[in-house]
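User: I'm putting together notes for a lab meeting next week and I want to include a structural view of one of the chains we've been expressing. I don't have a solved structure, so I'd like a prediction I can at least talk through. The sequence is below, exactly as it appears in our construct file.
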Amino acid sequence: MAETLRLRSLQQPSHIERLLENLISHSELVPPGAYPVRDLKSVPRELRGTAIQAMEQGRVWSCWEHTSHNWMFVGEMSLALSRERGRPVLKVDVLDDRGFRDSGLWMADRDGKWSRCGD
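Assistant: Thanks for the context. Below is the predicted structure for the 119-residue chain, given as structure tokens.
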């Protein structure tokens, strides 16, 4: 019961946003020099609808830009897998300027190093 309450507290959007941002900035999901676009109005039109839909569904989003390319990451915590593994597990969808690119489960180890889980 205590573990479930702890994991539910981690499900708060601000915490999931920090986890998602940490995953993106400490992995090779975007090229070096990419930076986050935090203002929804500055998100490219083709990705803005995805961000709005994510928020309506209680998911979090993070948009990143590098030169003329953009990436949208939409994430949510998997409560069941987080409980099973004893660590936060994020389900992350990745889109770029052309649309859907990938979806996967990610988990940080005790040292904060992110790796993709066996989906």
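A couple of points you could mention at the meeting. The helical segments are 2-10, 13-25, 45-56, 79-85. Residues 43 and 64 are 9 Å apart (CA to CA).

User: Perfect, that's what I needed.
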